């Protein structure tokens, strides 16, 4: 609760407490129990005083059943939390021997009264947390519903026979708990909202007369409601509300699964989606219930970012605000401004909009949902902390209000005694102090509530005053000259071209084929787009690059709604697309990543490696293991979203070149780790696991080795992956599954599966292009190689250029033990003694072949000064003095000198290898610095060009100093016959 230690009972409540104690003692005397029961200890009596100072309900129950105190003392039920399942066990004992409906009603009510006293006692004496109180109440409801249902079911079967489905299997009802019961958040006097369903149509067999399954379950449902809801001399168990079922009070009491699915697909309303978020199976057939919820999930959670829910949520929010304004509502801790309902609305609004994409939000209780809003950056941590604190405070207040008389109320008391009780129970000296704390909590909630799905037009900061001025451009109300004039006045430098683009969009087939709802959304969006584009440094460029996206999503107008509702996201889109046609093209091809623009803080803060791995793992954990299609879509979205975040950070200048490559490489590693796990699980489930040469089962004895850019931690935008697959199993022995295959075939299929997951074209494109040509024997070699065969090839058959490639090879994911053995082999092969003149000749010859095939014409035959003019072009990668020259020098140095300096083998990236060469004194520090600066400058330019969709070439008069420096060092390390032709 909101306090840590009890305050003494205030003097104003002592007389009331004594009165309750006297009544209890009188009841004991009247029932002649005092002498037959043991004396209660001081701990019990002190707690009893605290409870009776607040709760008339507990006092009344003890007066009616004075021995209850001793029964609750047994097994110390007042002093400990119930273990999981214990509530149901206690009820089963209470219902043992019940033979008639009258006995059932009596036993249920007495059980409820006893547990209600126990729960209130623990809550008021501060032994139970808010969550425990809610959980105990929900567990009590679950137990009462399920066990009462089973009793009613058996009685109905005795009369009418057993209901059977089409399959001939017995049918049970599924009871869905909605609202607070579904979320396991019941308060002390909650109603319970239920929906009844059954799996299949059919009829009963074996009874005195046959009924249809629906008729049978209607009778069971009616008896169940009576068992729980009907008032008797012992009170009631729970008030039952069935109005959330299809068609409300006018609908059937019970529906088949098919009827429910058809109803929600064809007639389900937005408020029913909102309600169904918390649906949980609370009684009946749990297995069938899980199937039902799975059937209904697509109705609740769209598989995309669902901004279509905004309009309905905004209407619901307005209804809440209107209710709050009603007289007297301010003193209601649930329905008043800043109350419990507003906190729940905040959580459920994010769930409806984002829950289809972000499965972490597909939860029922509000507190975990709020935690996920912070974890996934939908709300700031500070906002979530305030909402959680307010929720617990308000729920505690609600419990105190209801503990007084077990009455369903959330209204603050107006009488002095009631106010004193509430303030004291909440740990405050007086009503004024409590009321001040309450108002502080509610003000925080109201502030956050006001900001959720606020109308963008109401936000002054995000308002768009020029929208109305530019609306005629889209509405077709202007002649060309008027349109040109208006566009020019808005800042467009080429108004004629801008007007032509707008007209082209208007006349495009996709726009003309839009349905009314989508076209209405487009008509609202376009003036906003034009107005915000006019604010960019280059309005024409911004419009040119974003209009293809608008046309691409015309039939998926939820994206237009997303951008309309989030001006900040539209602004980020225009900035990024203006800066990079590559980004514009990626978003146009995969508009699903638009939701990444909603959170600028997250957009410009890519996560660290461990966060990436954990995020992807968590996303995949929420997908059924056998749903490969959804797993592949999740992998693709993960990659596109995070690559967009890296590009955004690079464009904003908040991420330097080396970090860009780091992040792009980390993204690939996180994906490969999960792809390997998915492929291994699929193969091992189908065939079992292969064996090692000693006969023991393999435990993912497989590694993915990265070469080239991914191995050197230098991935760029659009880079492919150079991969080699290595295993350590026995290729001859069979796997241990029901469909065994030999180890060689298993690993080959595993490799094929990995490549399929990476390269398959889905609606979200492919993950990566994969190049396997660096494996032993290239394309003619095995797809997957054993470590022994790989070692033999590297030691005996590999060419020098393959050892050069091995310099940048490293294990990306897989078996750690096998990875260590690969590292040892790599060190052995690279660290062997080599004939330096021969090595120099081979590396130089390979470099010359590459120049002849890939360099620009001016540098193929020699280093001519004409290559350094503005009339020529410079290939950053392949031309003399470029990236490949630096890479070859580094590779030569490692092959030539690591036999004496093994520390050169520690890293696979060129920058840190160069650091090692400097530290070992093999290349002078100033030369290393020159190579590193040139390498970084070239790669930075290549990255910029990639973001502009440009090839990796620049004007020949750029990077003169770097090129001369690299060529000079090349001639020192690897001199060749072309030196004579070079002129500085």
UniProtKB/TrEMBL annotation:
EC class of the enzyme, as a word: transferase
Gene3D superfamilies attached to this UniProt entry: 1.20.120.1510, Beta Polymerase, domain 2 (3.30.460.10), Glutamine synthase adenylyltransferase GlnE (1.10.4050.10), Nucleotidyltransferases domain 2 (1.20.120.330)
Keyword field: ATP-binding, Magnesium, Multifunctional enzyme, Nucleotide-binding, Nucleotidyltransferase, Transferase
Regions that span the bilayer: none
CDD domains named among the record's database cross-references: NT_GlnE_GlnD_like
Catalysis: reaction(s): [glutamine synthetase]-O(4)-(5'-adenylyl)-L-tyrosine + phosphate = [glutamine synthetase]-L-tyrosine + ADP; [glutamine synthetase]-L-tyrosine + ATP = [glutamine synthetase]-O(4)-(5'-adenylyl)-L-tyrosine + diphosphate
One GO MF term attached to the UniProt entry: ATP binding
Region: Adenylyl transferase, residue numbers: 471-984
Name of the protein: Bifunctional glutamine synthetase adenylyltransferase/adenylyl-removing enzyme
Originating organism: Halopseudomonas phragmitis
InterPro entries membership: GlnE (IPR023057), GlnE_rpt_dom (IPR005190), NT_sf (IPR043519), PII_UdlTrfase/GS_AdlTrfase (IPR013546)
Domain named PII-uridylyltransferase/Glutamine-synthetase adenylyltransferase: residues: 315-452, 874-949
Annotated region described as Adenylyl removase, given as residue ranges: 1-457
Cofactor(s) needed by this chain: Mg(2+)
SUPFAM superfamilies documented for this protein: Nucleotidyltransferase (SSF81301), Nucleotidyltransferase substrate binding subunit/domain (SSF81593)
Domain Glutamate-ammonia ligase adenylyltransferase repeated: 46-293, 572-824
Gene Ontology biological process: regulation of glutamine family amino acid metabolic process
Function summary: Involved in the regulation of glutamine synthetase GlnA, a key enzyme in the process to assimilate ammonia. When cellular nitrogen levels are high, the C-terminal adenylyl transferase (AT) inactivates GlnA by covalent transfer of an adenylyl group from ATP to specific tyrosine residue of GlnA, thus reducing its activity. Conversely, when nitrogen levels are low, the N-terminal adenylyl removase (AR) activates GlnA by removing the adenylyl group by phosphorolysis, increasing its activity.
Gene Ontology CC: one annotated term: cytosol
EC number: 2.7.7.89, 2.7.7.42
Superkingdom: Bacteria
Similarity-based family: Belongs to the GlnE family.
């Amino acid at each position: 609760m909101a306090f840590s230690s009890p305050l003494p009972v205030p003097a104003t409540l002592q007389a009331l407490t004594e009165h309750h104690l006297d009544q209890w003692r009188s009841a004991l005397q009247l029932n002649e129990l005092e002498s037959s029961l043991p004396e209660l200890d001081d701990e019990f009596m002190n707690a009893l005083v605290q409870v009776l100072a607040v709760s008339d309900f507990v006092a009344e129950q003890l007066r009616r059943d004075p021995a209850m105190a001793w029964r609750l003392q047994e097994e110390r039920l007042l002093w400990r939390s119930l273990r999981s399942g214990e509530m149901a066990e206690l009820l089963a004992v209470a219902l043992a021997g019940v033979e008639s409906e009258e006995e059932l009603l009596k036993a249920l009510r007495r059980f409820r009264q006893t547990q209600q006293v126990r729960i209130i006692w623990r809550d008021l004496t501060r032994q139970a947390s808010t969550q425990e109180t809610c959980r105990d109440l929900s567990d009590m409801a679950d137990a009462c519903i399920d066990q009462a249902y089973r009793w009613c079911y058996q009685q109905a079967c005795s009369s009418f026979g057993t209901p059977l489905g089409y399959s001939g299997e017995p049918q049970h009802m599924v009871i869905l708990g909605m609202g607070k019961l579904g979320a396991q958040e019941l308060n002390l006097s909650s109603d319970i909202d239920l929906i009844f369903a059954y799996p299949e149509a059919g009829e009963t067999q074996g009874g005195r007369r046959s009924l249809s399954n629906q008729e049978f379950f209607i009778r069971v449902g009616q008896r169940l409601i009576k068992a729980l809801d009907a008032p008797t001399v012992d009170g009631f168990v729970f008030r039952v509300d069935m109005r959330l079922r299809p068609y409300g009070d006018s609908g059937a009491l019970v529906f088949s699964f098919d009827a429910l699915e058809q109803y929600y697909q064809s007639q389900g309303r937005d408020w029913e989606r909102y309600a169904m978020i918390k649906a949980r199976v609370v009684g009946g057939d749990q297995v069938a219930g899980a199937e039902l919820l799975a059937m209904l999930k697509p109705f609740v959670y769209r598989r995309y970012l669902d901004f279509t829910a905004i309009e309905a949520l905004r209407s619901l929010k307005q209804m809440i605000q209107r209710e709050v304004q009603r007289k007297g509502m301010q003193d209601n801790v649930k329905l008043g401004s800043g109350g419990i309902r507003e906190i729940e609305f905040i959580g459920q609004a994010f769930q409806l909009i984002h829950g289809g994409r972000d499965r972490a939000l597909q939860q029922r209780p509000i507190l975990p949902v709020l935690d996920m809003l912070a974890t996934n950056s939908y709300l700031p941590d500070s906002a979530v902390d305030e909402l959680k604190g307010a929720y617990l405070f308000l729920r505690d207040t609600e419990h105190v209000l209801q503990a007084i008389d077990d009455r369903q109320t959330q209204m603050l008391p107006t009488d002095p005694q009631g106010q004193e009780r509430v303030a004291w129970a909440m740990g405050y000296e007086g009503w004024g102090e409590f009321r001040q704390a309450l108002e502080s909590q509610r003000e925080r909630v109201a502030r956050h509530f006001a900001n959720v799905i606020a109308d963008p037009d109401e936000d002054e900061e995000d308002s768009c005053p020029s929208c109305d001025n530019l609306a005629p451009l889209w509405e077709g109300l202007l002649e060309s000259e008027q349109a040109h004039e208006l566009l020019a006045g808005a800042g467009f430098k080429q108004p004629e071209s801008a007007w032509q683009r707008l007209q082209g969009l208007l006349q495009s087939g996709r726009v003309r084929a839009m349905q009314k709802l989508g076209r209405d959304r487009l008509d609202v969006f376009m003036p906003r787009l034009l107005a915000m584009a006019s604010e960019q440094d280059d309005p024409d460029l911004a419009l040119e690059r974003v209009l293809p996206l608008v046309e691409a999503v015309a039939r998926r107008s939820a994206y237009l709604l997303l951008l309309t509702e989030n001006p900040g996201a539209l602004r980020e889109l225009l900035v990024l697309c203006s800066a990079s046609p590559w980004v514009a093209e990626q978003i146009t091809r995969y508009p699903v990543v638009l939701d990444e623009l909603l959170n600028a803080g997250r957009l410009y803060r890519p996560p660290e490696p461990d966060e990436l791995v954990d995020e992807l793992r968590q996303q995949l954990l929420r997908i059924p293991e056998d749903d490969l299609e959804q797993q592949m879509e999740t992998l693709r979205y993960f990659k596109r979203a995070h690559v967009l975040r890296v590009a955004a950070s690079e464009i904003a200048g908040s991420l330097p070149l080396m970090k860009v490559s780091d992040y792009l490489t980390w993204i690939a590693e996180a994906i490969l780790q999960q792809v390997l796990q998915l492929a291994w699980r699929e193969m091992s489930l189908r065939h079992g696991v292969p064996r090692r040469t000693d006969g023991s089962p393999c435990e993912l004895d497989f590694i993915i080795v990265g070469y080239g850019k991914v191995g050197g931690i230098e991935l760029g935008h659009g880079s492919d992956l150079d991969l080699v697959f290595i295993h350590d199993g026995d290729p001859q022995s069979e796997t241990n599954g029901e469909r065994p295959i030999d180890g060689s075939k298993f690993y080959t299929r595993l490799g094929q599966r990995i490549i399929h997951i990476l390269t398959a074209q889905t609606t979200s494109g492919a993950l990566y292009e994969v190049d396997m040509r660096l494996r032993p024997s290239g394309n003619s070699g095995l797809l997957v190689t054993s470590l022994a065969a790989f070692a033999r090839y590297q030691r005996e058959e590999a060419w020098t250029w393959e050892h050069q490639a091995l310099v940048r090879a490293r294990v990306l994911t897989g078996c750690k033990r096998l990875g260590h053995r690969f590292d040892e082999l790599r060190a052995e092969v690279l660290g062997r003694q080599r004939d330096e003149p021969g090595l120099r000749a081979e590396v130089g010859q390979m470099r010359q072949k590459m120049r002849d095939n890939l360099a620009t014409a001016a540098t193929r035959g020699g280093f001519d000064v004409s290559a350094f003019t503005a009339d020529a072009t410079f290939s950053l990668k392949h031309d003399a003095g470029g990236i490949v020259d630096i890479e070859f020098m580094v590779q030569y140095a490692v092959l030539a000198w690591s036999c004496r300096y093994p520390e050169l083998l520690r890293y696979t990236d060129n920058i840190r290898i160069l650091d090692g060469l400097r530290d070992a004194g093999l290349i002078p520090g100033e030369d290393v610095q020159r190579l590193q600066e040139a390498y970084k400058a070239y790669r930075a330019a290549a990255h910029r060009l990639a973001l502009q969709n440009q090839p990796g070439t620049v004007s020949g008069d750029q990077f003169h100093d770097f090129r001369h420096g690299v060529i000079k060092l090349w001639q020192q390390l690897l001199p060749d016959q072309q030196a004579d032709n070079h002129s500085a």
